Amino acid sequence: MHGPQPDLALYEAGGQARNPGGGVLPLPVSSGGSGSLRIGIISHLKYPIAEPFAGGLEMHTHLLARALRDRGHAVTVFASSRSDAALGLEAVCDATALDEVGTAEAHDVAFFKEHHAYLTLMNTLRHRDFDVIHNNSLHYLPVSLADTLPMPMVTTFHTPPFCWLESGVRMCSAANHTFVAVSRSVARLWDHVAPSDQVILNGIDLEKFGFSPQPDPEPYLVWYGRIVPEKGLHFAIEAARSIGVRLRVAGPILDQVYFDGMIKPHLGDRVVHVGHLDHLALARFVGGARAFLCTPTWDEPYGLVVAEALACGVPVAAFARGAIPEILDESCGVLATPDDVASLAAAVRGAIRLSRYDCRRRAEQTCDARRMIESYEALYNRRIAMPAESEFCEVPLLHA
Q1: Which residue blocks in the chain are alpha helix, DSSP H?
Q2: What proportion of the chain, given as a percentage, has pLDDT over 90?
Q3: Are 295 and 183 in the same domain?
């Protein structure tokens, strides 16, 4: 690993707090002690909240809703109509991603459809009896209209600032509103707009990504995720080719131009795209690899794929971007210089030598969804207990 690493014991989501006398002390975390809560979760509408997931945000929202329901809370998920009904779905509209491209005004149609859906939802929520609303969308309207709701709202920052969401955040004046960042990296990126009240690291279902103590006998590397330019699959292909190890790829093709121009010409015996897999098949696929290559070309807000690979016992070679250095340490991953194929290839060689048991241990310590859910439960209960007109006082966010 290169450079100083963040102290994960500073995170409430990590379940520990620093002991001034040395070592760490357990951090007491609420598990919904005030009883069952009525929780409304606002999702984004681009893709259904259902398997196979289009990306990490869909998976995170699904896991959050399912885990809260399993813990006895009454959860309602406001999402597109093709989302998983078992989550307590109230369909807001059809998914706004367009099935076909061809009309010049298509993006406007999607924009206005989404705008109308969120405006209608926020007007409706004013008359609902939820204890708390968790805004997991990337849209400007829920956060900008938070002050119209009688109940507290929590908004999670899943991405760096972009113009539309930043506009809504700057308009948010609700006293009963809380901002959460999914990593310290994301919190820093939002500091100039709205400081995060808390960092809660994302988590994964460790049972769904079971440990594979041994890789497949036939060596291969793995890359998976959304096949779009910002995920940088082309770097993984070049690095795998340079060290002479097969690369297997999984994930939805969400940018056909990028796939046709940068990826498809390299497919064959040495680079294989296996398609878009569900959780069970994906865990088996990832678990058989010698190493996972993570190649974002932007500051990854968290990196659920990194957590999933570690849970399977697979070491990670990754570009040192965004929150990835917060997840990896020298026991489970090797960081590479961003956009540098030679550095990535060297990181792969180093990662292959790491212990698969240490990778799983790191996932259990840092990426367990139970800690994430308990942290959100504790936050919900603290927020509900506060008078709406009072300021929300949180432990200061510590920066590296």
Answers
A1: 56-70, 106-125, 140-144, 163-171, 184-190, 233-243, 256-258, 279-287, 304-311, 324-327, 341-352, 356-366, 369-385
A2: 76
A3: no
193: tokens are: 């707009």
Instruction: Please report whether residue 214 resides in a domain.
Output: no
Q: Which two tokens stand for residue 303?
A: 């990196």
CA–CA separation, 263 vs 391, rounded Å?
Answer: 51
Residue pointed to by tokens 């340490």: 329
Q: Does residue 119 fall inside a structural domain?
A: yes
The pairing of strands 89-93 and 74-80 is: parallel
The CA distance from 44 to 121, in Å, is 12
Q: Which helix (H) or strand (E) holds 24?
A: strand 24-26
Q: What's the whole-number mean pLDDT along residues 160-164?
A: 93
CB-side exposure of 281: number of CA atoms within 13 Å?
Answer: 12
Quick one: tokens of 111? 């924009």
Q: Which residues pair with 238 in a beta bridge?
A: none
Confidence at residue 115, expressed as pLDDT on a 0 to 100 scale: 86
Closest to 299 in 3D by CA, of 199, 185, 137: 185
Place of tokens 């999984």: 250
Strands of the 153-157 sheet, one edge to the other: 89-93, 74-80, 38-42, 132-135, 153-157, 177-181, 198-199
Q: How far is CA 104 from the centre of its chain?
A: 32
- Per-residue pLDDT tens over the stretch 185-228: 999 999 999 999 999 999 999 999 999 999 999 999 999 999 99
Confidence of residue 109 (pLDDT cuts 50, 70, 90): confident
- Distance CA(7)–CA(10), nearest Å, equals 6
pLDDT, tens digit, for every residue of 235-274?
A: 999 999 999 999 999 999 999 999 999 999 999 999 999 9
Compute the radius of gyration of the chain from its Cα atoms.
21
Domain count, the chain: 2
* CATH number of the structural domain spanning residue 15: 3.40.50.2000
CB-based contact 303:327 (threshold 8 Å): yes
Is the four-CA dihedral 251, 253, 258, 261 of positive or negative sign?
Answer: positive
Q: Evaluate whether 379 touches 30 at the Cβ level (below 8 Å).
A: no
The range of the structural domain enclosing residue 349 comes to 221-366
Question: What CA–CA distances, in Å, run from 169 to 111, 119, 172, 176?
Answer: 18, 16, 5, 14
Q: Find tokens 């972009």 and name the residue.
A: 162
Q: What is the pLDDT of residue 107?
A: 57
Over residues 312-344, the pLDDT tens digits come to 999 999 999 999 999 999 999 999 999 999 999
